[in-house]
Amino acid sequence: MAKYDESSIKILEGLEAVRKRPGMYIGSTDKRGMHHLVWEIVDNAIDEIINGYGDTIKITLHKDGSITILDNGRGVPIGMHASGKSTPEVIYTILHAGGKFEEGGYKVSGGLHGVGASVVNALSKWMDVTIYKEGKISNIRFANGGNVEIPLKTIGEAKKTGTMVTFLPDAEIFKNCSFSYTTICERMQESAFLLSGVTIYVIDEEDKKEAKFHYENGLINFVEYINDGKKTLHPVIHFDGSKNGIEVEVALQYSDNYNENILSFVNNVKTGDGGTHEVGFKTGITKAFNDYARSNNLLKKDQSLDGADVREGLSAVISLKIPEAYLQFEGQTKGKLGTPEARSITESITYEHLKFFLEENKEAALTILNKALQSKAAREAARKAREQVRKGTGKNSKERVLSEKLAKATGKNYALNELFLVEGDSAGGSAKSFRNRETQAILPLRGKVLNCEKASDHDIENNAELRQIEYAIGAGLGANFDPEDSNYGKVIIMTDADVDGSHIQILLITFFYRFMRPLIEKGMLYIATPPLYSIETGNQGKVYIATDEELEEKKKTIKGNYKIQRFKGLGEMNADELYETTMDPHNRRLLRVNLTDAALAEKRIHLLMGDQVEPRKEWINENVDFTLEDDFRK
Ligand code: 1YM
Fold first, then answer.
1. 273-330 residue pLDDT tens
2. How many angstroms does the Cα of residue 75 sit away from the middle of ligand 1?
3. 41 Cα nearest atom in ligand 1
4. Residues 86/145, Cβ–Cβ less than 8 Å
């Protein structure tokens, strides 16, 4: 029988605590949480590379659901630890046994990761660690949440060095989850951009797929990737600098489109909510352009370019390295940098380098500046026009065009008002007749709207349906769009719960993404969720059901007779029913459209809505599960 001493009981208690509350350590126990296990182990391999050992990481997804992460660093130490256990046993069974990077180096732990390899072990059915070091191959095996199954032993001779970790996530904790090749590839590509010269392989043994990520000019290649397919105005601008131990590296490039794409990272971890470094960067470029414009008499004395003017069409990646002692993250998801010094340092490095670049590259400088000046002029003209429309003083008031289709809200508190974009005239009619007239406006749409992936402002102006949406919202379009001017606090897409309805949703989202992106960024775009069924019973009356699963659950609880109605579309509901289930703020369930990763969203929209068929087919095959519920015959 195994002998338990005080310390082994403590270890088991520690790992047991992880199994009891996995969410506290990895955020959640869904697919996202399960991928945290991978990031945790990969981060250890990345740390080793950042410290100067090794240059390659290989990730293999196995058919049985387990995953292997291999690096060619020094290999985890294999000696005995003071506790009498082998060092690998300590690293993989004791919480926070990292102990690395105590002084000096940078740690790749932002937000949730950095919890330690033992957390991965605690949440695995089994884990196998093989170390190539000191001419030997050593192996240790754990099972059922971190119990040592086979202690560390030599299993062969090694010529190379490195660490290989394989684990199978415990199905009791991660229910119905599997690793996603696409998710892992996306993340590893991002890491490869941030680690110039490093090679990362991702291999899927089940589907026999393989990807290799390697970039010699990291951030420059990253910006080129973001701007791939766009018409760019100049080669990528790249600079770096450091102060007080904080290192700043930036790559940026303007294209002729008007969206801004700024991505930032701190110690190789994405800061999705920005923070002080992004603020400093923005201030830096605004100052540099204003200075340049003034000293070249391109702006009048009392005039200046706004931040939004100089960011039109800008793609940029900002990467900071901050010593641990200065690190400060904020926000619920810890995705926002709080370190105050990062602002002024990023600002001055950006300002100095950009100023120098503009002075040295007159042609590029004038092209970018011209664009900013145009953006400024267009923004001001558009604002003026909108003010006139609102006051009703416009000569050529576009409101006329709104015709009879839009049923306006009577309330003047724009923030409280809601615009429903409704599929079909029949549902539109129901929604018009039964709504809160003070706050709810209805705009019926006839069928499919234009796919805007490749549309220009001009195309929108020539498209009756989209022009109506533009005028109804009344806040401009594209570069001139300003969510502050929106006539509605919420824009709600309401379509049938079928394939055509989904198609209309994605077409509209593409339109908003391309032409009113701040509306999505500000969380003002929503999707209504109409019920699929109603069930009428003797004693409970009529209840509405959103999904097939819910219907099955409900059926089980009903005794006696019941009558089910399936709503094939919004038009099949009575007007009062539609209001009660889908529009009434007290009962309805709205899905907010959000944008967590701008660069990825950009690629996805391009992929899914663009004109290249093969990559789209491939993506759909890999990422969409077709089920019987998707009945394409209808
Ligand atoms: C596939 C995962 O963990 N590689 C790795 C980890 C470590 C070392 C080398 C290492 C570090 C040091 C000295 C040191 C370590 N990780 C940990 C902990 N790959 C992977 N490669 N020698 C080797 O920091 O001094 C401890 S050692 F705790 F973070 F897991």
1. 899 999 999 999 999 999 999 988 888 878 889 898 899 899 999 999 998 888 888 8
2. 7
3. 2
4. no
Residues 177, 235, single domain; the answer is no
Pocket test for ligand 1, best of 39, 40, 44 (most atoms within 8 A of CB): 44
382 alpha-carbon distance from chain centroid: 31
Q: Are residues 598 and 481 in the same domain?
A: yes
Task: For residue 98, give the ligand 1 atom closest to its CA.
Answer: 28
Distance CA 585, CA 435 (A): 11
Q: Whose CA is nearest to atom 4 of ligand 1?
A: 45
What ligand 1 atom has the least distance to the C-alpha of 101? Answer: 24
Q: Count up the domains in the chain and report the number.
A: 3
Last residue of a domain, one of 315, 343, 378: 378
Q: How does pLDDT run across 343-365, given as a tens digit for each residue?
A: 999 999 999 999 999 999 999 99
**Ligand 1, CB cutoff 6 Å, lining residues:** 41, 44-45, 48, 69, 71, 73-74, 76-77, 91, 97-98, 100, 117, 163, 165
Tell me, in angstroms, the distance from the centre of ligand 1 to residue 44's CA: 6
- Per the CB < 8 A criterion, the answer to whether 346 and 281 are in contact is yes
115 with 190, same domain? yes
Q: How far apart are CA 164 and CA 117, in angstroms?
A: 13
Interval between CA 162 and ligand 1 midpoint (Å): 9
What pLDDT is recorded for position 10? 65
Q: How far apart, in whole angstroms, are the C-alpha atoms of residue 100 and residue 399?
A: 65
| Cα 115 to averaged position of ligand 1 atoms, centre (Å) | 14
- Please provide the DSSP assignment of 385-403 as one string: HHHHHHHT--TT-GGGGGT
Domain boundary among 378, 411, 446: 378
Q: Which of 248-252, 440-444, 584-588 has the lowest mean pLDDT?
A: 584-588
DSSP secondary structure letter of residue 3: P
For 133-166, b/e burial (b = at least 16 CB within 10 A) is: beebbbbbbbbebbbbeeebeeeeebeebbbbbb
Closest CA to 504 of 474, 466, 478, 467: 466
Q: How many CB atoms lie within 10 A of CB 70?
A: 18
Atom 28 of ligand 1, residue of closest alpha carbon: 98
**Does a structural domain hold residue 566?**
no
pTM (two decimals): 0.72
**Could you tell me if 308 and 521 are in contact, meaning their C-beta atoms sit under 8 angstroms apart?**
no
pLDDT digits (tens, 9 = 90+) for 383-434: 777 777 666 554 444 444 555 689 999 998 999 999 999 998 889 999 999 9
Residue 352 is part of a domain; what is its CATH number?
Answer: 3.30.230.10
Q: Atom 11 of ligand 1 has which residue's CA nearest to it? A: 76
Residue 173 and residue 231 in one domain: no
137 touches 157 (CB < 8 A) = yes
The catalytic residues are: 423, 496, 498, 500
Domain span holding position 175: 16-214
CA–centroid distance, residue 43 to ligand 1 (Å): 10
Specify whether 308 is located in the same domain as 368.
Answer: yes
